[in-house]
Amino acid sequence: MRQLWNSAQPIHSLSEETLVPFLDKLRLGDLSMDTLEKVGAKINLNLEQLILPCLTTKDAPFHSIKIITPNRNQSDTIEPDSGPELDEYYRVEEKNIPKQHPWLLGYHLAKNKDEVIVTATAADTLTALDCLAVPAVCLPSGISNLPLATMAFLESFRKITLWLGHGVQGADCARAFARKLGEKRCRLIRSSEETPSALQCRMKGKNVAQVLKTALPMTHKSVTTFSSLRKDVYAEITQSSTVAGVRWRRFPVLSDLLKGHRRGELTVFTGPTGAGKTTFLSEYSLDLCMQDVRTLWGSFEIRNVRLAKMMLQQFSGLMLESETREMFNVVADEFEKLPMYFLAFHGQQDVTSVLEAMSYAVYVHDISHIVIDNLQFMMGTSSSEHSSMDRYYRQDQIIGSFRRFATDNNVHVTLVIHPRKEAMDELSASSIFGGAKASQEADNVLILQDKRTNDPTCRRKYLEVAKNRYAGDLGVMPLEFHKESLSFAPRNKRTASTKVAAAAAANNNNKVNQFTSSSLQSGRGRAQ
Ligand SMILES: Nc1ncnc2c1ncn2[C@@H]1O[C@H](COP(=O)(O)OP(=O)(O)OP(=O)(O)O)[C@@H](O)[C@H]1O
């Protein structure tokens, strides 16, 4: 970082003729020199980098920088907010050095002020600083998460305007961040076509100060009106693919049926004992996590070490027992970068402690998907004095609390519930243990079917979508189990991370041949 910084040139040392065409390439041609000087920017013309230090005070040493460059790697472009006409803008890349840090770009200008605008990109912060009297800062990890250490910097502001852009996803994150920061002091500029991010507003010729005035207080969570729903309704209509959520890469049939994995929903998952529920859910959640869906796993039945080992195998597609230590390290280094967290519970647990740990993880790690395997571990030990009615009532209460948790925290909860003992060979939504509450409360009901075939040594497994509140489509996804990689995905979708494959290649490990060319093309979607 220091080397990059020292080899860059200060803004004042460059002529306007040099500077303006360079800034134009970054879509920042309108920026004033004054703003660039204020943030302490430097430029490396050879590397085409605009370098921005994350300062806490004007003259203090800094520990991180943000770099804006023209993006030569199209797959890393930020997803457009709206309108193909702005595609050009996204051929710009922003990165952090170091990659993870808590510092806010622009903080030294906002410190001691009453009010601040929070943006998700450095370009938006620069634009806001250029156009507005209110100071602006840029989050270290964009909309991905809001680290606790960053929240400490935002503690002193009485009024915080969250202007994160990034469409529906950005609005969801802004609501989650506002809950953490205290809704009372937060206002939201809801990303839409009329009010995208600060930079896009400027590029569209909008008056950025006027857009700031459209910021609305975060409404009370129990009271709403159509006017506050209006933009969300419009987004549902116009941005259906974003609203539909994250699609599974390994399970295209599931994606086609459910349309995607959305925040705020409850999925109830069932299947016969030993059918492979945990194995399937491990891969189902891993697939999403590899696309940056921040995941918390509550495995009460199998130990976290075993679960993580299974995930590692599914992640790499390799049977790690027969691999070298070096290969384990390559895979583990990549796996460690995933936003995957585990609840350290095992065996019977009190539901209140589980919900408390879930709240903590949502707050601290910005979790958006929680897998609970399985609900029976919160029911207490079964004893003869508990009638089945008591147990049904208890289960309904627990399901109700997970349902509320998913809605209130805008988190997707996938909850495993065992079927009734007397359930037949083919299960249905009514075979789920307990009353009808589970299937009523769930947005999705997924059943791992394990059917006998004429050949007694062979069983046919498939995943049945028995309820689908969002899209309504019901159907089945055949499952093809691959023992080495513990994968249920179709052969051509059993993918390894691009980085694992590349690192393995660099290690000159002969197992690299196991990674097919298709797996090389399908690593993680968005960079962390
Ligand atoms: N389709 C399959 N074919 C053969 N073995 C499988 C298949 N799916 C999973 N397994 C293996 O069966 C064992 C049990 O799988 P898993 O723990 O995922 O089942 P489960 O349904 O979660 O079990 P439980 O009902 O006890 O919670 C594991 O060793 C797993 O590797």
UniProtKB/TrEMBL annotation:
Annotated SF4 helicase domain residues: 240-495
Organism taxonomic ancestry: Eukaryota, Metazoa, Ecdysozoa, Arthropoda, Crustacea
Superkingdom of this protein's organism: Eukaryota
UniProt organism field: Daphnia magna
Record-linked Gene3D superfamilies: 3.40.1360.10, P-loop containing nucleotide triphosphate hydrolases
Protein name per the record: SF4 helicase domain-containing protein
A Pfam family per the record: AAA_25
